[in-house]
């Protein structure tokens, strides 16, 4: 499934929003054709802190209201379930998304380390480039493949800050 609402955000910006109360949600909708009723989940949506999750799912709520209740008997039942679920903000799938993302990252790092050991190379800790996804050693400041800045360190407190941030997330000072 695709995640809508994170298209122009870096991983660090997403994590910042999650710490503020953002979450990943799925809405449900139903469509009926007389005696056949389909209940389906939406794509995954990223809802930032302060945004209305119920309002983001209004399209799926309207689909259910218009096309869902026609089926007998499940159209009425599924429509009511969809309305209740969507008006309550959808189904929160944040934990599942984060655990899956972390699991994939760990698998990639372990796979690369195994390949390095098999070829007799020295194993180094690596981090992915947020622009192109290629692996760079942890000490790298720029990506070896695309040249994008991998990390920025705050000159005042030394905290690691994601590229694109204008202020340090550790101390609040302006970054140049």
Describe it for me?
The protein has 176 residues and is of the alpha+beta class. The strands form 3 sheets. Strands 1-3-2-4 form a 4-stranded mixed β-sheet, sandwiched between helices. The protein has a two-stranded antiparallel ribbon with strand order 5-6. A two-stranded antiparallel ribbon has the order 7-8. Helix content is 36%, strand content 21%. The protein has 2 domains: 3-92, no CATH class; 124-176, no CATH class. It contains 5 helices and 8 strands, in the order βαββαααβαββββ. The chain has helices spanning 11-20, 53-56, 58-67, 74-87, 94-118; strands at residues 3-4, 23-33, 36-47, 91-92, 126-128, 135-137, 152-153, 160-161. Helix 3 (58-67) packs antiparallel against helix 4. A hairpin with a 2-residue loop joins strand 2 and strand 3 (36-47).
């Amino acid at each position: 499934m695709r995640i809508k609402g994170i298209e122009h955000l870096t991983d660090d910006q997403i994590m910042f929003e999650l710490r503020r109360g953002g979450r990943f949600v799925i809405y449900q909708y139903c469509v009926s054709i007389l005696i056949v009723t389909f209940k389906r989940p939406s794509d995954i949506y990223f809802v930032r802190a302060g945004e209305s999750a119920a309002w983001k799912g209004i399209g799926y709520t309207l689909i259910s209201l218009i096309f869902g209740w026609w089926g007998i008997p499940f159209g009425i039942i599924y429509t009511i379930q969809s309305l209740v679920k969507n008006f309550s903000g959808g189904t929160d799938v944040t934990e599942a998304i984060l655990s899956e993302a972390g699991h994939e990252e760990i698998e990639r790092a372990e796979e690369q380390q195994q390949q390095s050991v098999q070829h007799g190379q020295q194993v180094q800790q690596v981090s992915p480039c947020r622009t192109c996804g290629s692996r760079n050693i942890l000490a790298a400041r720029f990506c070896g493949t695309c040249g994008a800045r991998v990390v920025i360190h705050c000159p005042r407190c030394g905290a690691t800050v994601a590229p694109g941030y204008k202020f340090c997330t550790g101390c609040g000072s302006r970054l140049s």
